[in-house]
Amino acid sequence: MRFPEDVPVLTDDVVTLRAHTEADIDPAYVMCQDPEMQRWTTIPVPYRRENAVAFLTELVPNGWRDGGMWAWAIEYDGRYAGTVDLRDGEGRVGEVGFAVGPDVRGAGVMTRALHLVVRYAFDVLGWDRVIWRAFAGNWASRRVAWKAGFRGLVVVPGGGKARNVRHDEWIATIGREDTLEPQGDWWKATVLEGDGLRLRPFRPEDAERIVEACNDERTQHWLAGLPSPYTLQDAQTFMDGRMEPQATGEGVSWAIADLATDELLGCVSVFGMTRRLDPTVGEIGYWMHPAARGRKVMSTAVRMVVDHAFTPVADGGLGRRRLVLFAADGNSASAHVAEVNGFTRFGTERSAAARRDGSYVDHHGFDLLAAERT
Question: Where is the N-acetyltransferase domain (predicted)?
Fold first, then answer.
């Protein structure tokens, strides 16, 4: 193909994909100074203007000419916003890569661009499948791929490489006959406020309070699976781990914080939402910082989460039909939270709750139906 004459313009009337021009060099250079761009891509670091010049005046044009890579500039609101490309299209299968500037992230620009190039790959290039890759932990890229319908995600340990360092890699694909729509749910920890509490996503500054809560003797007793002692690294691992269940639709967790000070008071979660036999159910779990006990904090937080869980998905909730909650035998405080929120005790799982000494106690089950809250 000739460059730029033969580069097709793709548009959905909001986002336009076009041939790169020399006018894109400076905004591309600025974009590549972004720490997130440098963290998650293989661009040179430090990134110099001559790197942008080489990419846009040599690599991109040569890719179109020899058919090794088809790269478009993403134009949004009349200005350069990033780049998306298709490559390695042998055997009717190829890969997609993309990057957008920080000023347009969250506006749906990349999802629109991805839809356009995937359709081009299928309808014009005749591909049967498109592959997406990203370093594990690049949640923004994974969410874009999810919104565009990529599926079958796998983790390849050490599968990616950037600047001579190996990284775990996520890989997902979409086929010609697949719908370009999200598969399953991707939950968000929607901020909920009321009665002196704020339920919000966890933040790095919560780590020390998490350590205090999870080293508490009472917390350690009832949550026997917690590391002991519980370290700052354990807290960081816990917070990092909240994204995976949200991305798979399995669950969502909130930090319970004081509305006035935003100080962490505990955690409340809804999980088990992808059960094969009944995906309308969710289970509630929680723990509390010892300084927050005796203030009805957990009873209030659970009430807020129950209301959110029973709210239809179309209205921003979790769309649950039934919620369950379990309390180990002897944990009267946990059972009280269930009872004051209208849960009904439905039975006992015998010797189901593990203790740190290797013994087991009964688990008492409570449930609540959405129909009972109307």
Answer: 15-175, 197-367
Do the Cβ atoms of 128 and 92 come closer than 8 Å?
A: yes
Token couple for 215? 């080293």
- Prediction pTM value: 0.93
Q: How far apart are CA 119 and CA 101, in angstroms?
A: 23
Distances (CA, A) of 231 to 4, 143, 215, 283, 314: 56, 30, 8, 27, 39
- pLDDT exceeds 90 at position 277: no
On the CB side of 281, CA atoms within 13 Å amount to 11
Q: How many CB atoms lie within 10 A of CB 188?
A: 10
Contacting residues for 295 by C-beta, under 8 A, at least 6 apart? none
- 119/71 Cα distance (integer angstroms): 14
Tell me: the pLDDT tens digits for 258-269? 999 999 999 999
pLDDT tens readout for residues 75-89: 999 999 999 999 987
Cβ neighbour number for residue 371 with a 10 Å cutoff: 9
Residue 161, helix vs strand vs coil = strand
Within this chain, domains 10-175 and 192-373 share the same CATH topology: yes
Q: What's phi and psi for 257, nearest 5 deg? A: -130, 155
What are the structural domain ranges in the chain?
10-175, 192-373
Fold classification of 10-175 (topology level): Aminopeptidase (3.40.630)
Kindly give the residue spans of alpha helices, DSSP state H, lying in the chain: 25-31, 35-40, 49-54, 60-66, 109-123, 139-147, 207-215, 217-222, 232-240, 243-248, 297-310, 332-340
CATH topology assigned to domain 192-373: Aminopeptidase (3.40.630)
